[in-house]
């Protein structure tokens, strides 16, 4: 007899959701968490703090109605303390909400760092005691930690990762961001909106390569207007902290020989699975070179009663997908039927301006030789865009040229991460052009973008069809009898 039917290691979205699902099925469940804050990276240092910081930047400095963050002349630049105050508040409330949910569902929270003793037994190292617990099933939901710079320590002052960024005492004046992925771009755009001088460095030629290129071009254009410098296609050759006029500063040398000086360096080149402390060999498991675990479609590792979900299994590594993976893992271990997670999940980048996408990009469709047409709507042509004062937002839909089905939606501008869900529903239900051409939305709303972009795509498709028909008719008329 084991102590629990399920033990989840980690209280992030994957662990939480698995635990609640198992409890709803009448199972005895525990969550082990090493941090004081319950809620995972998601609540403690990741999603929630970064999004709350963004909101504080917009509310305290950038004009709240405008997503591209133009500072209003009247406002004085806020201090780090002012920006962080709201973050601490929201983190505490969110963590409390999670703890309430766990307690309502009779889930035992065990404090300490877990490691395997054998495939069913975990040792939990708490602050003052050690405890052994056994589980019929175990879910590894330990998430990730930031990759650390090589040859220099992230001191939390001059060199920071997303774990320590929001503990800064002072707003920096010059920031260098190494790694133009989601974390790097989100924070870079927030600092730029605060009037901080930002340089972004990435060894790849473009930031956020997985996004539709037209949308990223628009983002780069808007960030350059905020004086952001992009140093892409150039790796970091060395990084050091130097004393200069009584101040400590970061000095980066790029592979091309260029130098970047900053009073803070955000190191954001990706994340590693947090599996090193788990003593995986005792469970018969092994992680890959980035600390991640391999699972099958049911989220089982190679040891069938040990499951893994969330960031520790890699892509897509988002809060919502991690939750769903946790729930599905719990359903599978206790024989509850569940549909697999839909493939059309949205991606939201909370930069200033906001970006969101669902479905395919133009680049993916071109590579796969899928015939498509795009429809564009610009926020400046949409009444709600004018009302919001957002004249730079852009919205794009991609339709299959012959079948009219919706293949992708891409948006940059106010409300992008909310707006995308209409497209997600239509893609999921196999709808397309006809739906948008025949549907009436509330007015004035940003949803009008769907209508405008659909007409734009329909007109382009119609023009090509007419030209083709005319060409065919001409060819027929000229053909010898
Ligand atoms: C700066 C930042 C911003 C982000 N923004 C977004 C966003 O806007 N939208 C979005 O969808 N996603 C975002 N993410 C990603 C999102 O936070 C993750 O996808 C999500 O938190 C993953 O959930 P998880 O359950 O896998 O684990 P995590 O949330 O990573 O939680 C894992 C937990 O396991 C605990 N743990 C680890 N090892 C042990 C051990 N040995 N014993 C006990 N406990 C252990 C950790 O302390 C942690 O609490 C962001 C991430 C970062 C870093
Ligand atoms: N809004 C969101 O959904 C959101 C927000 C933040 C984070 N996240 C999650 O966090 C994860 C990690 O984010 P991230 O931004 O740290 O990683 P990432 O993998 O998204 O980006 C890392 C970037 O660093 C670059 N890079 C790597 N090594 C480099 C080097 N030596 N020099 C210069 N550039 C280098 C890469 O080319 C890449 O562009 C994301 O994959 C995502 O799952 C999601």
TrEMBL record:
Quote the PANTHER family the UniProt record gives. DISULFIDE OXIDOREDUCTASE, SOLUBLE PYRIDINE NUCLEOTIDE TRANSHYDROGENASE
Where is the protein localized?
Cytoplasm
Functional description taken from the UniProt entry: Conversion of NADPH, generated by peripheral catabolic pathways, to NADH, which can enter the respiratory chain for energy generation.
Which top EC class is given?
Answer: oxidoreductase
Q: Know the name of this protein?
A: Soluble pyridine nucleotide transhydrogenase
Q: Which gene encodes it?
A: udhA
Q: Where is the Pyridine nucleotide-disulphide oxidoreductase dimerisation domain?
A: 346-453
Q: Which controlled-vocabulary keywords does the entry list?
A: Cytoplasm, FAD, Flavoprotein, NAD, NADP, Oxidoreductase
Family, per the entry?
Belongs to the class-I pyridine nucleotide-disulfide oxidoreductase family.
Cofactor names from the entry are: FAD
Q: Which InterPro entries match?
A: Class-I_Pyr_Nuc-Dis_Oxidored, FAD/NAD-bd_sf, FAD/NAD-binding_dom, FAD/NAD-linked_Rdtase_dimer_sf, Pyr_nuc-diS_OxRdtase, Pyr_nucl-diS_OxRdtase_dimer
User: Which E.C. number(s) belong to this protein?
Assistant: 1.6.1.1
* Pfam families hit by this protein: Pyr_redox_2 (PF07992), Pyr_redox_dim (PF02852)
Give every FAD/NAD(P)-binding domain span.
4-326
């Amino acid at each position: 007899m084991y102590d629990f039917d399920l033990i989840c290691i980690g209280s992030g979205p994957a662990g939480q959701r698995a635990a609640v699902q198992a409890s709803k099925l009448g199972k005895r469940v525990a969550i082990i968490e090493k941090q004081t804050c319950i809620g995972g990276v998601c609540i403690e240092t990741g999603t929630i703090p970064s999004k709350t910081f963004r909101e504080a930047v917009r509310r305290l400095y950038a004009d709240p109605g405008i997503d591209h963050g133009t500072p209003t002349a009247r406002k004085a630049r806020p201090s780090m303390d002012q920006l962080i105050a709201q973050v601490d508040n929201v983190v505490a409330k969110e963590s409390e909400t999670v703890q309430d949910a766990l307690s309502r569902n009779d889930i035992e929270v065990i404090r300490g760092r877990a490691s395997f003793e054998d495939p069913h037994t975990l040792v939990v190292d708490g602050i003052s005691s050690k405890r052994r617990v056994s589980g019929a099933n175990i879910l590894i939901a330990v998430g990730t930690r930031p990759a650390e710079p090589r040859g220099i320590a992230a001191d939390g002052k001059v060199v920071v990762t997303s774990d320590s960024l929001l503990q800064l005492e002072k707003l920096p004046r010059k920031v260098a961001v190494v790694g133009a992925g989601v974390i790097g771009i989100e924070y870079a755009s927030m600092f730029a909106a605060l009037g901080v001088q930002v340089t972004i460095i990435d060894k790849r030629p473009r930031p956020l390569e997985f996004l539709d290129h037209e949308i990223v071009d628009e983002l780069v254009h808007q960030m350059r207007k905020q004086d952001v410098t992009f140093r892409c296609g150039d790796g970091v050759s060395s990084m050091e902290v130097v004393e200069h006029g009584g101040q400590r500063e970061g000095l980066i040398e790029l592979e091309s020989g260029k130098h970047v000086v900053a009073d803070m360096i955000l190191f954001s080149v990706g994340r590693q699975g947090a599996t090193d402390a788990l003593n995986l060999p005792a469970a018969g498991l092994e992680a890959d070179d980035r600390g991640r675990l391999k699972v099958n479609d049911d989220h089982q590792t190679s040891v069938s009663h040990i499951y893994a979900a969330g960031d520790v299994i890699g892509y897509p590594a988002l809060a919502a997908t991690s939750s769903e993976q946790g729930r599905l893992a719990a359903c599978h271990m206790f024989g509850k039927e569940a549909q697999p997670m839909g493939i059309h999940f949205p991606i939201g980048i909370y930069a200033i301006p906001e970006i969101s996408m669902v479905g395919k990009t133009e680049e993916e469709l071109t590579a796969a030789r899928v015939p498509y047409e795009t429809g564009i709507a610009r926020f400046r042509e949409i009444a709600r865009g004018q009302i919001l004062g957002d004249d730079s937002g852009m919205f794009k839909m991609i339709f299959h040229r012959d079948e009219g089905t919706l293949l992708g939606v891409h948006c940059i501008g106010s409300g992008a991460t909310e707006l995308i869900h209409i497209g997600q529903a239509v893609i999921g239900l196999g709808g397309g052009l006809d739906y948008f051409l025949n549907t009436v939305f509330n007015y004035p709303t940003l949803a009008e973008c769907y209508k405008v972009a659909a007409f734009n795509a329909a007109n382009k498709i119609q023009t090509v069809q007419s030209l083709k028909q005319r060409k065919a008719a001409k060819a027929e008329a000229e053909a010898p009898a």
